[in-house]
Amino acid sequence: MARIGIIIGSTRPGRRGPAVGRWVHQVAVTDRPAVTFEILDLADFGLPLLDEPCPAAMGQYRYPHTHAWANAVARCDGFVFVTPEYNHSTSAAMKNAIDYLFAEWHDKAAGFVSYGVTGGWRATEALRLILAEVRVAGVRTAVGLSLFTDFSASGLTPAPHQRATLQTMLDELLTWSSALSRVRQS
Questions:
Q1: What is the 3-state secondary structure (H, E, C) of 144-177?
Q2: 21: domain CATH number?
Q3: Range of 97's domain?
Q4: Which of 41, 45, 92, 94 has the most other CB atoms within 10 Å of its CB?
């Protein structure tokens, strides 16, 4: 059974990431009961600015917060990155969390759900570049939620087409996660 981590990439107060992550999780578990989906909220891991004395590629982690994060990432076959767009990129917390690890990311797949004034597309594109370096394959289809049309005063209210796009992205993610599991086993 595949395990997919839904990584919520904002840690600031008043963030919208948890609502987006819950929506992704709800759609995912409803339509794909044979897959385990787990929310990995960066705020729960308390990762300070990268404080490991050795480069992540060495895999010599010193601190408990790094071990907890490494274990969470290692047990996943793929990921949905839920990212805000901050200043034309992903959040500093997301970049920091990726930089903490190396081998735990290798040969896994990623889907993207971004949000921002213009749908967060630049955050998704920035993540694609960062993740390529740690050998994570990004799927083509992505969801971009607009702060103007997919959120309301009551919270997240995605337009109907967003669910269909999310389902397509999840299908691609599961296909690539399955294919890459064979790469990890060889």
A1: EEECCCCEECCEECCCHHHHHHHHHHHHHHHHHH
A2: 3.40.50.360
A3: 3-185
A4: 94
